[in-house]
Amino acid sequence: MLLVALLLSLPAGPASSTSSPPPLPPTPLVELAGCGAARGLLMTSRGGRPFAAFLGLPYAKPPIGPLRFKAPVPAEPWQGERDATVEAPMCTQKNYFLEQPVVVGQEDCLYLNVYTPRLPSSEREQVQPLLPVLVYIHGGGWFSGSSSPQLVGPQLLMDRDIVVVTLNYRLGPLGFLSTGDAAAPGNYALKDQVLALRWLRRHAPAFGGDPRAVTVSGQSAGAASAHLLLLSPVSAGLFQRVIAQSGSALDAWALPEREPGRQARRHAALVNCSRGSSTELVACLRGVDHRLLVDTTDSLKFWSVDPLTFYRPVIDPPNIPMDEVFLPKDPIEILRHAIEDYAEGRPPHHFTTIPLMMGVVRDEGILRAVPILNSAQLLEDLNTRIDELMPQLLELNRSIPLEITNREEQLNDVYRSISSQFFPSQPLSLNDSTRFIDLYSDRGFFHGLERTAVYHRLAGHIHLFIYSFEYQGSQSYTPIFAKTNIRYGICHCDDLLYLFSTQALFPSLSNDSFDWNVVNAMTHLWTQFAAFGHPAPLQPSVLHSLQSPHQYEICWQDVADIVWPQAGLGGDCASGGSADVPFLQISGNGIYAESQHLQFCSRQTFGHGRLAFWNSLPLVENSISKPDYKELAPHLVLLLSTDNILPGYWF
After folding, report:
1. What is the distance between the alpha carbons of residues 32 and 38, in angstroms, rounded to a whole number?
2. Backbone φ, ψ for residue 303 (5° rounding)
3. Is 244 helix (H, G, I), strand (E, B) or coil?
4. How far apart, in Å, are the Cα atoms of 604 and each of 3, 578, 607, 621?
5. Of residues 638, 574, 651, 561, the one with CA closest to residue 602
6. Which residues contact 601 (CB under 8 A, 6 or more apart)?
7. Partners of 209 in beta bridges
């Protein structure tokens, strides 16, 4: 009865005021304590709702001159009214996803945008509750991307009662170059994000946002950033919820750089800065034109544009101030200690169990697999040198423990297993596209997410929600990434099409498009999670769906009816295995009129059954084993004791 009472008491949607909010002024103005006034502009949501937009607000001083390769410094206040109607420049970058990438952007780029459907009113009778805040960290492999409203426009989300924030952060060498010591500790991009969140915690109420209800969301590298923020000690107290779309800190491309000092000196040599101590090297690099520093990254790649993500997080050196430490240990080690702490009943270090939602799209690997298969030159070279190139393309070296004595032999054994599994016959061709896409999907996204879910669960994280986006709509990022109009599946970033307006890349959907059903569903789920920490709070109308305590394979047509299984519960909760990671499958077709549909299904095994193979390999990502629980921790008691009630649905 207690569980049923709990289910029946859950709210049906984001809180709304009984009185309508006052109309927004034509040129909205906000007063930001300690900063100054900012005058924005009115924009219109997809559904015709007016909302206020404040663009290009500085959250940090320009990271130029002596501030390059340093943690960000809070922005200075300004005098008078700031014009917040023009977007800020993107950070310096070279976008290798483009057919002919060139260096664009500026080093003075640490600005954010705030969008809100409601501003606080001075009229007492019009007092409105503060709204949940969704902070979006753009993707782009930590080397590209922007918070521009032309790329991540808020028009779809602004039909909901939510404040949306997008931000720029430093990229590539300017965001991550590290000498491995205090001269240039690295992780500036991630520290930018922390400072932006601190700025938001202070100023959210001025935009009608609740500083106690902040959800950090990200895509690709932004998702990995969001997961890292969850593990970072300097992020403590800033996050109530996290959404990681197509990325985690355990993905192969996101694993920390093991030799940052060597990497920095290789790059410095390209711009005549390689001599002397670390301090001298950094002083020289601060004098190099930012465009040249980014452009010369090309010479550090081993093949084509690979690795796409050359600069990535590092473990902070021990000789920097504690308040500047972002990543004190490898994420694997942070999770290992969190699991040990939980098993022993100790408070965790650098780990929090706030609600976490993570997901993938079905065919993430289209991002890189199809461009290779579609290039006659790249495909021929790959087939000629496949045993040399594939271990590097898959970044296997990063996943083999450094301390083992037979490391080279183990790497070769792992590669042979992968080769037998995914391309037993050679040469590779477009006929192998499915397996090649699956290979990149698994290695780059699926395996890291599944390991993240398992390890968080073993550390007592029960508010964990996993999804797989498998809806094929009228638009796709495939032509953007793969330069082809052939549909190979559901491409990396295709889920973003139903959350953000991307006017720079895609035309607006027609009014009668079936895809609007997906927009409504996705914005509903994301807003629910931002408001409550649960994307689908159980309603009385859906209790009939729970026909059996162990029945996960249930489908719904209406987003209001779904029961989203928590990955922190269900099955053998303390096993550490992969066969019991429940998730929500979002699938359907919006292309052909006769087969248009949208479906939500509760599934029990994430990864389409492919991940057992990856979990059998001796990789660093698989190095945490199930602990011996000396005493059952309180959360574990809950997990085991509710098995005969409603496993996987406890809220």
Report:
1. 8
2. -165, 125
3. strand
4. 22, 10, 10, 22
5. 561
6. 553, 554, 555, 556, 584, 585, 587
7. 131
Is the Cα torsion angle 268, 262, 183, 326 positive or negative in sign?
positive
**Long-range contact set of residues 258-266: C-beta below 8 Å, sequence gap at least 24:** 258/398, 258/402, 259/180, 260/177, 260/178, 260/179, 260/180, 260/186, 260/314, 261/178, 261/179, 261/180, 261/181, 263/177, 263/178, 263/300, 263/311, 264/177, 264/178, 264/179, 264/180, 264/184, 266/300
pLDDT band at 550 (very low <50, low <70, confident <90, very high): very low
Q: To which H or E segment does residue 260 belong?
A: helix 260-270
Strand 241-245 to strand 209-219: parallel, antiparallel, or no bridges (unpaired)? parallel
State the Cα–Cα distance between residues 159 and 498, nearest whole angstrom.
Answer: 13
pLDDT of residue 62: 98
CA distances from residue 112 to 164, 526, 602 in whole angstroms, order as listed: 11, 21, 37
User: Average pLDDT, whole number, for the chain?
Assistant: 89
User: To which H or E segment does residue 603 belong?
Assistant: strand 597-603
Peptide bond into 307 cis (omega under 30): yes
**Tell me: the pLDDT tens digits for 130-180?**
999 999 999 999 999 999 999 999 999 999 999 999 999 999 999 999 999
pLDDT of 208-242, one tens digit each? 999 999 999 999 999 999 999 999 999 988 989 99
Pick from 354, 350, 317, 344: nearest CA to 331: 350
Going across the sheet that includes 131-137, the strands are 41-44, 50-58, 111-116, 163-167, 131-137, 209-219, 241-245, 356-361, 464-472, 583-589, 597-603, 554-556
Q: Which domains does the chain have, with CATH numbers?
A: 13-328 (3.40.50.1820), 356-641 (3.40.50.1820)
**Which region holds residue 371: left if phi is over 0, alpha if psi is between -120 and 50, else beta?**
alpha
d(CA 209, CA 163): 6
Give the residue with greater pLDDT, 625 vs 422.
Answer: 422
Please, which residues have CB within 8 angstroms of residue 204's CB and are 6 or more apart in sequence? 130, 133, 163, 210, 211, 214
What CA–CA distance (Å, rounded) separates 484 from 371?
9
CA dist list (Å): 166 to 139, 217, 436: 11, 10, 34
What's the per-residue H, E or C state across 36-58?
EEEECEEEECCCCCEEEEEEEEE
Q: State how far the Cα of 485 lies from the Cα of 37, in Å rounded to an integer.
A: 47
User: In this predicted model, which residue has the larger pLDDT, 608 or 523?
Assistant: 523
Residues designated catalytic: 220, 364, 492
Helix (H, G, I), strand (E, B) or coil at 174: helix
| pLDDT digits 0-9 by tens, 305-342 | 999 999 999 999 999 998 899 999 999 999 999 999 99
519 touches 156 (CB < 8 A): yes
pLDDT of residue 402: 83
Structure confidence by residue, pLDDT tens digits, 407-465: 999 999 999 999 999 988 889 999 999 999 999 999 999 999 999 999 999 999 999 99
Closest CA to 517 of 589, 592, 601, 585: 589
Q: Which residue, among 140, 532, 145, has the nearest Cα to 309 in the 3D structure?
A: 140
**Residue 476, both tokens:** 């796709």
**Helix pair angle (447-458, 331-344), 10° resolution:** 30
Q: Is the CB of residue 111 less than 8 Å from the CB of residue 138?
A: no
Using one digit for the tens of pLDDT, what is the confidence trace for 36-54?
Answer: 999 999 999 999 999 999 9
Closest CA to 401 of 449, 330, 450, 308: 330
Query: How far is the CA of 302 from the CAs of 307, 308, 310, in angstroms?
Result: 7, 10, 10
* Residue 494 tokens, joined: 């295709």
Dihedral sign, Cα of residue 477, residue 483, residue 485, residue 489: negative
